[in-house]
């Protein structure tokens, strides 16, 4: 008996950034047969956008003193700070099924970002907050709490976002304080947009536990897309590709430094 | 013939993007769909694929270059290909011997469908990104070309397609067997009516079947087991789903711990779930975790049917209508209300005899509502 469409929900247990970045890319590149919602966290690190200039985006001295690794993801967008107080929310949609078929405009920019920003904002409303959904971010009281980036592949679209739950905002502002690189056309095209940030904890949502936030986010996505989220792990081919990407890309310093 | 590789048109608000990397060199041989380059438009990275088979004869831009969406970034020459292959190829800017140029920008799936439906893509404007022709455009064009067919066809909605795909998958993955039995519900209908009053109708037959099933599941818990590849999950609570039809599909809200509730409570709960399901107001938690399902087509005049399993559940019970039927009772003829119950079960989990025993207990409970503790 058919019910609502079943989507996969992957909740990563490990917080190891390099493995998580490899898994992210593998899921997207394997073009899953059904949509995937992935919730994951990384231990403290900075993650650059695909084409960003590392030395221009981060304060290297602070990163060094704080032993903060700087990594690179495969999607566009700006540099972000990750720690266990930040929840990463990823949505991978096949092009031949689901929301992208219902509304092909969602595979355009900037509409694609709304695929994640709208349900995330709904989750925040469920927590009693008053988020404002912008084209590329969610703000609360004028401060950014969530940013987004995307990847368009031939078989699928990935949109992912950060959600600052109870991150160390002071450390965030110190590490994402690079000198810039005026005159460098690559930097000019890809530089991060500095914004004042906030977190759910900062907005008065106390006693947050990751499980509660995950539940609100899960519920909001299920309601927004009218789907049932079924817990799952990576499929075999996704795991194999993740291992390959880890070995050939994410474990290689050159990828993170040069892109 | 030359094919021009274009910067994808992804954004409506930003005109330009950056070419991040080439994955081919000048002189490389490429196949249709091969990954050629990676680009970034605002906060999104995207891949560029070969629109045709051939040799890369020119890379017009360098990594890091800023390029307008739609601009040509590379050329592919397929001069070595046989003429027949060239004649059928679409998907890029094509240059032929004369001065005329036509642009055909279509997805591989759209091209395949166009060949099947004999649709000419050359004059079409697609609804995909950057005007790309997608399958839906080809379908629409084919429908316009065949108005007589169109008059008899209905659009397969995404939800309908999903339902179809899921059903086919479930039927392939499970071993579904259906058994049926008649239940004389004459006494039950009287008892249910007596539970009502002037303001409120008595509980429905569905509520009674939910309770009868839940009580029988206590005795036959394996019927409520859920099949997982790694193990069979036995139920911790007899949470029963009740199928509710929507405009284009079904939803199965769940009555929690149905064996612990009386039939009047179940009646109210079922009514509430059905109303909220049709108003699209169910919470996610209300449609998850069912261990057994009930589907009632009796209200639509159906006598009997074979319900389809709702995996990973093991069984589903179908209710037909309670029809007035001549019957022999204690040696004399009478009219009784008889309902056909159809139990579909997964033969991987249980065999026919325990399934029959479960169904028999449900029937007995419905036939003797007072003695069996149903009411």
In short:
The complex is a heterodimer of chains A (about 260) and B (about 375). Chain A has helices spanning about 15-30, 55, 60-65, 100, 110-125, 170-175, 185-190, 210-225, 235-250, 255-259; strands at about 5-10, 35-40, 45-50, 70, 80, 85-95, 130-135, 135-140, 145-150, 155-165, 230.
CATH class of chain A: Alpha Beta
Assign the structural class of chain B, choosing from mainly alpha, mainly beta, alpha/beta, alpha+beta, or little secondary structure.
Answer: alpha+beta
Name the CATH architecture of the largest domain in chain B. Answer: 2-Layer Sandwich
* Total DSSP E strands of chain A: 11
Q: What is the element string of chain A, with H for helices and E for strands? A: EHEEHHEEEHHEEEEHHHEHH
User: Which whole number gives the mean pLDDT of chain B?
Assistant: 82
Kindly state the percentage of residues in helix of chain A.
Answer: 25-40%
State the CATH architecture of chain A.
Answer: 2-Layer Sandwich
Radius of gyration of chain A: 17 Å
> In terms of per-residue confidence, which ranges of chain B show pLDDT below 50 for 5 or more consecutive residues?
81-103, 145-152
In angstroms, what is the radius of gyration of chain B?
Answer: 31 Å
| Oligomerization status of the protein chains | heterodimer
List the helices and strands and how they pair.
The complex is a heterodimer of chains A (259) and B (375).
Chain A (H helix, E strand, L loop, with lengths): L5 E6 L5 H13 L6 E5 L4 E4 L5 H4 L2 H6 L4 E3 L7 E3 L3 E9 L4 H4 L8 H16 L5 E2 L3 E4 L2 E10 L3 E9 L4 H7 L9 H6 L19 H16 L2 E4 L4 H15 L2 H6 L1
Chain B lengths: L1 E5 L9 E7 L6 E2 L4 E7 L2 E6 L4 E6 L6 E3 L3 E6 L5 H6 L4 E3 L5 E3 L4 H10 L17 H11 L1 H4 L7 H16 L2 E9 L1 H9 L10 H15 L6 E2 L4 E2 L6 E3 L1 E3 L2 E3 L2 E2 L7 H16 L13 E5 L18 E5 L3 E7 L2 E15 L5 H16 L8
Parallel strand pairs in B: 14-18, 18-19
Antiparallel strand pairs in B: 1-8, 1-9, 2-4, 2-7, 3-6, 4-5, 6-8, 9-10, 11-21, 12-13, 14-17, 15-16, 19-21, 20-21
Helix pairs in contact in B: 2-3, 7-8, 7-9
């Amino acid at each position: 008996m058919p019910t609502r469409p079943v989507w996969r929900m992957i909740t990563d247990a490990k917080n190891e950034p390099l493995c998580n970045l490899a898994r992210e890319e593998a899921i997207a590149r394997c073009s899953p047969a059904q949509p995937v919602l992935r919730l994951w966290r990384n231990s403290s690190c900075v993650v650059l956008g695909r084409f960003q200039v590392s030395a221009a985006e981060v304060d290297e001295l602070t990163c060094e003193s704080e032993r903060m690794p700087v990594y690179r993801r495969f999607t566009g967008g700006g540099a972000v700070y990750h720690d266990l107080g930040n929840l990463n929310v990823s949505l991978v949609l096949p092009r031949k099924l689901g929301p992208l078929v219902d509304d092909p405009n969602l595979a355009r920019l900037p509409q694609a970002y709304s695929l994640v920003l709208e349900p995330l904002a709904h989750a925040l409303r469920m927590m009693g907050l008053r988020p404002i959904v912008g084209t590329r971010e969610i703000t609360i009281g004028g401060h950014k709490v969530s940013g987004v980036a995307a990847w368009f592949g031939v078989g699928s679209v990935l949109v992912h976002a950060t959600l600052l739950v109870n991150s160390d905002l002071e450390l965030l502002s110190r590490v994402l304080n690079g000198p810039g690189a005026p005159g460098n056309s690559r930097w000019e095209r890809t530089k991060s947009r500095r914004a004042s940030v906030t977190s759910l904890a900062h907005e008065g949502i106390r006693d947050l536990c990751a499980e509660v936030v995950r539940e609100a986010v899960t519920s909001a996505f299920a309601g927004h897309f009218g789907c049932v989220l079924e817990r799952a792990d990576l499929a075999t081919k996704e795991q194999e590709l993740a291992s390959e990407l880890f070995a050939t890309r994410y474990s290689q310093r050159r990828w993170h430094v040069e892109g | 013939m030359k094919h021009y590789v274009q910067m994808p048109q992804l954004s409506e608000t930003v005109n330009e993007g950056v070419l991040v990397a080439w994955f081919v060199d000048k002189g490389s041989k490429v196949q249709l769909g091969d990954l050629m380059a990676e680009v970034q438009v605002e906060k999104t990275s995207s891949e560029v694929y070969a629109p045709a088979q051939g040799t890369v004869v020119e890379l017009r831009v360098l990594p890091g270059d800023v390029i307008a969406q739609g601009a040509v970034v590379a050329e592919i020459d397929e001069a070595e290909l046989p003429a027949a292959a060239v004649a059928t190829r679409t998907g890029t800017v094509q240059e032929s011997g004369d001065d005329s140029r036509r642009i055909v920008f279509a997805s591989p799936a759209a091209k395949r469908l166009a060949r099947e439906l004999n649709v000419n893509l050359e004059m079409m404007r697609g609804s995909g990104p950057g005007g790309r022709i997608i399958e839906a455009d080809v379908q629409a064009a084919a429908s316009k070309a065949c108005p007589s067919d169109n008059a008899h066809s209905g659009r397969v909605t995404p939800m309908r397609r999903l339902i179809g795909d899921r059903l086919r998958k479930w039927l392939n993955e499970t071993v579904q067997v259906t058994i049926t039995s008649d239940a004389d519900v004459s006494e039950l209908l009287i008892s249910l009516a007596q539970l009502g009053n002037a303001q409120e109708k008595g509980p429905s037959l569905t509520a009674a079947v939910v309770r009868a099933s839940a009580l029988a599941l206590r005795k036959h818990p394996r019927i409520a087991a859920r099949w997982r590849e790694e193990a069979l999950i036995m139920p911790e609570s007899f949470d029963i789903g009740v199928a509710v039809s929507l405009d284009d599909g079904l939803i199965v809200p769940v009555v929690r711990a149905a064996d612990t509730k009386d039939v009047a409570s179940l009646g109210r709960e079922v009514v509430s779930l059905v109303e909220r399901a049709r108003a699209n107001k169910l919470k996610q938690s209300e449609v998850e975790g069912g261990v057994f399902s009930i589907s009632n087509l009796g209200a639509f005049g159906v006598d009997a049917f074979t319900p389809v399993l709702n995996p990973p559940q093991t069984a589903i019970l179908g209710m037909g209508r309670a029809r007035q039927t001549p019957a022999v009772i204690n040696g004399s003829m009478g009219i009784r209300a008889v309902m056909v119950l159809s139990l579909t079960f997964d033969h991987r989990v249980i065999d026919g005899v325990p399934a029959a025993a479960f169904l028999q207990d449900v029937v007995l409970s419905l036939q003797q509502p007072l003695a069996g503790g149903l009411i």
